[in-house]
């Protein structure tokens, strides 16, 4: 077991707990950068997909995992980011301006939507965001002059300083672009967590009353969380557009919203790792299922609803037996090895309590 | 005499029930002032009035010359009023350190963008917050729990963490809502020393609600006895304890 | 006349929404959780009835199959609570929300695997014939739906207001700990509520399938039932029905009088409108937490 002897206040403020974890993450980055030389194009595409989902997951994680506001409508913000980015590029803006601008626009849209949403609690917020997700589909159709409605739009080719980046012709460059965005978003998220705003968000999540008593402005904190969450999600949406190549009103459906929320729960609510673990599950589940189908001789028979059904089942099992998600399980295994042979089963026991309602009648 | 907190003719009704009835009292700078009374006497309601969770039906509350009724609940901390809760309200899924750091929120000077980039200024500020929080941790002997999650801590420690979180805000007035309830005899003893030190070493004025008369008479300068939201008696602990009206409210008519 | 016809078909649809919303409210009242799979429960109830009564499956008489299906769904609801939801004791509301959404996916998959994805029609005696009143032609099914719904709502309302079990369920929903100390078997009461809501879902499913074809995705109309429950105010049984009727009636009128594209968003727009101005529903019950 590694024991941290704190020698200065800087210790907990640093990005990495110690040299060891710095090396682990540095090695991870090196491997990630070198991936196009190791993997074939198909799997590189899949990894790109994982990273895009992970960015979207980070966005929702900030809102749901960190601030405690469950959103079932985040596909709407994927859509805003995606359409905004492509529309800016069609207007002639270069990618390097259009892309961040799309994130900012999505963040502003999210903050505006947050103004009524922050007054809603628990299930009401969940239901309102479901409605939002459904409305997005219809709104994209209604806004046909801008969005091209049902026929949809095609993602243009990205050009950064003369270098052309395209999902199919240059998958390695597209992968590096996505990787760069992933690293930047992760860093920004990590920075927030070790700064006052990130702590204020956790405070709002765990107890609004005492957060208020500590001087945290609940509405402002929630609005900030919505804004940043939606901005990150918008960036992911823009990348998703490039990844898909073409998109229309049905690309960002309610199912995507729900999948996104389930993904971060499976990964582990409240942790950065969780977004990545969950993304791996979402992106590789279809592959795993088709491999499993092949091996039992199912062949190419399409079974509708299989993916979502299995995904749902995995989620149910996680909520029942490992509410902390894959990240929670991972931590337990790590602690078990670090303490070996002194780990005890009751170390991880969950507290059970009777529910006491906040409702009066 | 300088009154730090002045509550004048405060009245609060819930529906038809009068929770606080024409209550007036002042807390002087540097003293420990305790509110006692049977359950339902309106003690916690007084705290919630000061915290601005409730609006008084009528009356005035001033803190150091500021009209508290002009402030929102999240602006109270900024004036230098910190509090604990009767049924501990900590941030369960965060560490002790993070809980205390939330206490520093009112000293936040950095903006969202700076924090996302973690600029040198944010780093400097963070270090400043850490120093302030470490002082509280040393003061309350919380070192062994610094990086522990609240969810796994024993009740007694949580109570102390809550006091620590309130101290981390750097308050002038500390409101303690039943600091000793649920604590063991030893823990209550510790709490008593800490309250003493908070006043003497840190110069913080303490207003507390407490049932444990041992603790109350041990640390407080003045005591207010409440019954049905109204003032029953006020004075030194000894005076209040020997007041016939108080004895009657506590033990029932005929016992006195 | 046209208005009247739109109104009746809207009311009949609204009753189905109302019944699903009733299921939400039942569970919300008793457990503070929301069963987002209630729409899929409805779909499953319809398919179970269809599987029991249709000629190509078990070919039982409808009046035998319908009570059986209701009983089966009640048992399923109870078992679901027993095997799954009890493990969530002490977890947040959000966990239950996400779990039931996932459950909906699983139910949809299972129903598709058993009964296929082609729309099927229930051979229901309710589905035959029209009723002519003056110049208005009313489907028998629509009329039956309205009558059954009103009766069921009245029955449930009485049940919660008058019977000991109903009161116990309400008590358990307000403060589990206190209810437990008062000698109410909190866990078993919760199981019964889930069973009851399964039964209500089965009734809704039978009525819905009597009005038209069903397929595994029929449960998605549960989303409209959310709108109903929110508009009516979570926690009120008659409110849920009223909300269902409002949504049901708005739909055909919006389709008739609004431009295409705007009509299908009407219920959701109304839902958002209600939530923005009454963040806790029309008949708010949530107060701030006491400290």
Largest sheet of chain B: 6 strands, mixed
CATH hierarchy, class of chain A: Mainly Alpha
Amino- and carboxy-terminal Cα gap of chain B: 35 Å
Shape of chain B: globular
| CATH architectural grouping of the domain at 1-74 and 210-256 in chain B | 3-Layer(aba) Sandwich
What share of the residues of chain B lie within helices? Answer: 25-40%
- Number of helices, counting only DSSP H or I runs of 4 residues or more of chain A: 15
* N-to-C SSE string of chain B, H for helix and E for strand: EEEHEEHEHHHHEHEHEEHH
Shape of chain A: globular
Mind describing the biggest β-sheet of chain A?
2 strands, antiparallel
Oligomer: heterotrimer
- On the 0-100 scale, what is the average pLDDT of chain B? 90
How big is the Rg of chain A? 21 Å
User: Architecture of chain A, CATH level 2?
Assistant: Orthogonal Bundle
Structural class of chain A: mainly alpha
Mean pLDDT across every amino acid position of chain A:
86
- Low-confidence segments of chain B, given as residue ranges, are none
Number of strands of chain B: 10
Give a written overview of the molecule:
The complex is a heterotrimer of chains A (361), B (256) and C (291). Chain A has one domain: Orthogonal Bundle (ABC transporter involved in vitamin B12 uptake, BtuC). Chain A has 15 helices and four strands. In chain A, the strands form two sheets. In chain A, strands 1-4 form a two-stranded antiparallel sheet. A two-stranded antiparallel sheet of chain A has the order 2-3. The model of chain B has no long low-confidence stretch (mean pLDDT 90). Chain B is built from ten helices and ten strands. In chain C, a hairpin with a 2-residue loop joins strand 1 and strand 2. Chain C has one domain. Chain C has a two-stranded antiparallel sheet. At the A-C interface, helix 6, helix 12 and helix 14 of A face helix 4, helix 7, helix 9 and helix 11 of C.
